[in-house]
Design a protein that fits this description.
Helix content: 25-40%
Strand order of the largest sheet: 5-9-4-1-2-3-10
Largest sheet: 7 strands, parallel
Number of strands: 15
Number of helices: 9
Distance between the termini: 60 Å
């Protein structure tokens, strides 16, 4: 066993941006331990994204165009990955630490009797040792692996994206019939939105309990739409009914690292900071200057959000009209 198998994440329309960052970790594994970095695409549309994926720093792209994988049931996904791992002599298996990755990759590890490292953020100095955050990212632990195979879900926000400027790697197809575990796909109620996905967005505008109610939260949505950004929220805002739960950013929500993160009416509880503190630029507005959010913010304004945010909205509208 010597190769690295990277399981890419897609949706019906695109190869997700998080792959560029998670692939950097897979590339680092290949550079340290040797072997080929083989990127895998699963599902009926796998071949559609192969040429795009082949331009990253991978040695080969393999497509498994099996329609049953489109439902993304963990049983079928894990079965397919086991088949690929055995066929391509994989020592390491890597995928982004998304809801999908956290669901199926531990099952792959169980079937292969491999070590499982979730939310990995990099390698440690010792051979076979890796780092991952715990306790809402307050502590980074180092885990030593001793199994022949190791499975990873990777926190993509810990890595800079790989450039997509390499010579295209060869592409080949793989035929395999994955076995399920008894689960049955019923339906998928997708959230329809013209806004970018939270984990892909360059700009994220988030609101917290400081917005007071659903009507107040609409200011956040308005500002995000003006900037072409995604809308995020704290768990408190979601639990209070200000916005849907797919907006949630944090330890129990989505992990994001946009170029710019706006935190409006957010106190900065550690659970929320765990999901956004890797953002490149953080801008916060809160009427209480002692809130923890100001400890991580690059720019902070102590003010009433209902006075300052409308001014910002008007300023952006005026700038766009010039």
């Amino acid at each position: 066993m010597k190769n690295i198998l990277y399981v890419a994440e897609t949706d019906a329309q695109r190869l997700k941006k998080i792959n560029a960052s998670a692939l950097r970790f897979a590339r680092e594994l290949a550079d340290r331990y040797g072997g080929e970095l083989i990127a895998v695409l699963l599902g009926a549309q796998a071949a559609r994204f192969a040429s795009e994926l082949a331009c990253f720093a991978v040695d080969k792209v393999v497509t498994l165009s099996e329609a049953s994988l489109d439902a993304e049931l963990a049983g079928e996904l894990s079965s397919a990955c086991v088949g690929l791992a055995e066929a391509y002599d994989a020592r390491f298996l890597v995928t982004p630490s998304s809801t999908r990755g956290k669901d199926f990759m531990p099952r792959v590890a169980a079937k292969l009797e491999a070590a499982m490292l979730s939310d990995c953020i990099g390698m440690a100095d010792e051979d076979g040792a890796f780092r991952r955050p715990i306790w809402a990212s307050k502590i980074v632990e180092v885990l030593q692996t001793h199994s022949e195979r190791v499975c990873f879900s990777v926190r993509h926000t810990a890595f800079e994206p790989l450039p997509q400027d390499n010579e295209a790697a060869p592409i080949e197809s793989f035929t395999f019939s994955p076995e399920g575990d008894g689960a049955r796909f019923v339906r998928f109620d997708a959230v329809q939105s013209a806004r970018p996905d939270l984990t892909d967005a360059e700009v994220v505008v988030s609101g917290g309990r400081g917005l007071k109610n659903e009507e107040g939260f609409k200011l956040v949505e308005t500002f995000a739409d003006l900037l072409g950004g995604a809308v995020g929220a704290t768990r408190g805002a979601v639990d209070a009914g200000f916005c849907p739960n797919d907006y949630q950013v944090g330890q129990t929500g989505k992990i994001v690292a946009p170029q710019v993160y706006f935190a409006f009416g957010i106190s900065g509880a550690i659970q929320h900071l765990a999901g956004m503190k890797s953002s490149k630029l953080i801008i916060a507005i809160n009427k209480n200057g002692d809130e923890p959010i100001f400890k991580v913010a690059d720019y902070g304004l102590v003010d009433d959000i209902f006075k300052s945010l409308p001014v910002l909205i008007d300023a952006v509208k005026a700038a766009k009209q010039e």
